[in-house]
């Protein structure tokens, strides 16, 4: 197996190319795509085999992996998370789309993780037209994790889609080239206790939205 490299304009993604990527995901494929932070690896959240494949690529235990859901708007978030109070919703509305991952208690609709009911879910709505349009066309969120293997390294391949393609072409089905990515991951905010607890400082500054 060898992946396809699909070049898509980052600001004005053509629908036919987005649909090409969507078809691969619907068939159980794993893709790499740009976000507003680092490139991500993902698949359909409802395809357990594809999720396990993503975990194998990253060397993660499917039962313990902290994979995020990429959604295209706030309505998706309420489908898979609960405990979103009005004050929290107002902050989300101001901060998203943006470089944040918000942690919530998982709802009963959230796909099981490694065969078990997940307790929490990380939600992302990146400020990136390619992935937002892709999720919208797919009709449900994408399970996602970053291409970065070590948060402490600044490997060149993480930002260069051609180098990403060379590294992962035998492991995934598609690599979307949306231009050079960033090397700073999303900021992770824990909202499970009806508050905004900073877990990891990344590209986003949550303070300006509180």
What does this structure look like?
28% of the residues lie in helices and 22% in strands. The chain has helices at 15-26, 48-58, 74-80, 86-95, 129-138, 161-168, and strands at 4-7, 31-33, 40-44, 68-70, 81-82, 100-106, 120-124, 142-146, 174-177, 187-190, 197-200. α1 crosses α5 (129-138). The mean pLDDT is 92. One of its GO terms (molecular function) is double-stranded RNA binding.
Average pLDDT metric: 92
Low-confidence stretches: none
Q: How many domains, in number, for the residues?
A: 1
Structural class estimated from helices and strands? alpha/beta
Q: Topology as H/E string?
A: EHEEHEHEHEEHEHEEE
Let me know the number of strands: 11
* CATH architecture heading: Alpha-Beta Complex
Rg is 16 Å
Q: What is the CATH first-level class name?
A: Alpha Beta
- Helix fraction, binned, reads 25-40%
Tally of DSSP helical segments: 6
Q: Roughly what fraction of the amino acids lie in strands?
A: 15-25%
Head-to-tail CA distance between termini: 47 Å
Biggest sheet, in brief?
Answer: 11 strands, mixed
What name goes with the CATH superfamily? Answer: DHBP synthase
- At the fold tier of CATH, the topology name is DHBP synthase
Shape: globular
